[in-house]
Design a protein that fits this description.
The protein is α/β, with parallel strands linked by helices and about 170 residues long. It is about 45% helix and about 15% strand. α2 links the parallel β2 and β3. α2 packs across α4. The two termini are about 25 Å apart. The mean pLDDT is about 90.
Length: about 170
């Protein structure tokens, strides 16, 4: 095993053993460890622990930098976005202070609510200090959720423009 991703149904940072699991993975020679989080627990202490743990990349699920869209997708108050941005700023500052090479990625699951804002998402992520952005296609196995998919007709052109912008911004 060369790569290990801590993610899934639930927040990995809620697992009381997450840092011993990361250490075990490092001790076993796994060279790339990715942690996917919603970022709600990224205070200064947690950020410092992640940075010093040897995680290769942290992916923070933002979904949108528009407060209303963020709130709708994450089912949170609109001020949740400002709190998350502050947490990302703290993480970026601690990364720089510790001279860490951990990569910071902001991700979004593409839905009908955020697909038109991908270019703005890329710019905002870059401005916050992210090294990378990732967009994940919304896939639904539940017929009740099928109506939140982004329209397929528009996606090819939107993705092409987003890819070009990300390349230009080196993110």
């Amino acid at each position: 095993i060369r790569e290990l991703i801590f993610c899934g149904i639930g927040e990995p940072l809620l697992n009381k053993d997450i840092f011993s699991m990361i250490k075990l993975a490092k001790d076993k020679g796994i060279c790339f460890i990715n942690l996917i989080t919603n970022g709600k627990l990224l205070d200064e202490e947690m950020s410092a622990k992640i940075i010093s743990s040897g995680v290769s990349r942290i992916q923070i699920s933002v979904h949108s930098f528009d407060p209303k869209v963020f709130s709708k997708i994450r089912n949170e108050e609109e001020d949740g976005l400002e709190k998350l941005k502050l947490a990302i700023n703290t993480f970026v500052r601690l990364k720089k202070e510790s001279d860490s090479n951990i990569k910071i990625c902001c991700n979004a699951v593409i839905t009908k609510f955020n697909y038109e804002g991908l270019s703005d998402f890329i710019k905002e992520a870059k401005a916050l200090g992210a090294d990378r952005v990732e967009f994940i296609q919304m896939t639904t196995a539940n017929d009740n959720l099928i109506n939140i998919n982004a329209p397929i007709v528009s996606m090819a052109d939107i993705c092409k423009k987003a890819r070009k912008l990300a390349h230009t911004l080196n993110i």
